[in-house]
Write a structure and sequence with these properties.
- The protein has nine helices and two strands.
- The protein is mostly helical.
- It has two domains: about 15-125 and about 230-255, no CATH class; about 140-215, no CATH class.
- It has a two-stranded antiparallel sheet.
- A hairpin with a 2-residue loop joins strand 1 and strand 2 (about 95-100).
- The chain is flat and about 70 Å long.
- The chain starts with 12 loop residues before the first helix and ends with a helix.
């Protein structure tokens, strides 16, 4: 059974790192794959990320959406191979012409896309939403916005489950989703999203009453049940991040 893309509890090093440290690595990794111009670092990044998943105790094959983003990456790479004709010709079967430049571009684009997705997956699977919100609030984010972030992250799996319930209920009532007519598609969309909208409004009403009963927003600051503290591992991770950023900047300058 496929798992939802939500936080998975664990005791790995990635789980124990401070959320803001992981967010800094996520930002650096995303910028890195967009600023480098060679496919070799991109392939190395993908390899490191694939190794990081089992080290974190997360099985990528069981996470939803893997087949979709892998197919999308292969499609992007294939388009580069078919339409970019630079470098040595490796295959010449008109109208199909494959060149070394096209293969490099395909590996580069597909690898960059996969890297960004894997970085995001790894961050979400190993970062507890409450800890992330707490860390952001300790860094200066107003706690109202932090609460909004936690609420959004918490409700996404709930709405996903309710959407599946609505879908199965409509199938049991004879609703056909395999009709390809655009007009029918709009009708099905309205029938599908209307129950979700009603459910969302109900949850918002309950949540607002609960917040008012607890005097949410009365005080400028708030206390927290659980605190996230920095450790030696966080310091080492930051040092490694600075070293990686420095090496990348130096390589870009002398290029």
């Amino acid at each position: 059974m496929k798992q939802r893309i939500v936080y998975q509890p664990g005791g790995s090093l990635l789980h124990r790192l401070h959320p803001l440290v992981k967010a800094a690595w996520l930002l650096f990794g995303t910028l890195f794959v967009f600023v480098v111009q060679s496919p070799i670092p991109i392939v190395a990044t993908v390899g490191l990320l694939l190794i990081a998943f089992p080290l974190a105790g997360a099985r990528l094959s069981r996470v939803r959406g893997v087949r979709l983003f892998v197919t999308t990456a292969l499609l992007l790479g294939l388009l580069q191979i078919l339409f970019i004709r630079e470098g040595a010709v490796l295959l010449d079967l008109p109208p199909l012409v494959v060149t070394s430049g096209g293969i490099k571009a395909g590996v580069y684009v597909a690898g960059r896309f996969i890297s960004v997705i894997l970085l995001s997956y790894l961050f979400v699977l190993t970062t507890e939403p409450n800890d992330l919100a707490y860390a952001l609030m300790r860094a200066g984010l107003p706690y109202r916005y932090g609460f909004a972030l936690v609420t959004a992250l918490r409700l996404v799996p709930t709405f996903e489950q309710e959407g599946q319930i609505v879908y199965n209920a409509q199938l049991a009532r004879g609703v056909r989703y395999d009709v390809r007519s655009p007009r029918r598609f709009l009708t099905l969309g309205r029938q599908f999203f209307f129950p979700l909208l009603v459910s969302a409004l109900g949850k918002v009403n309950v949540l607002s009453v609960s917040m008012e009963g607890r005097c949410f927003g009365k005080y400028p600051t708030r206390t927290f049940l659980r605190e996230v503290r920095t450790t030696r591992s966080d310091g080492l991770a930051l040092v490694a991040l600075l070293v990686a950023a420095g090496i990348t900047a130096f390589a870009l300058v002398i290029r």
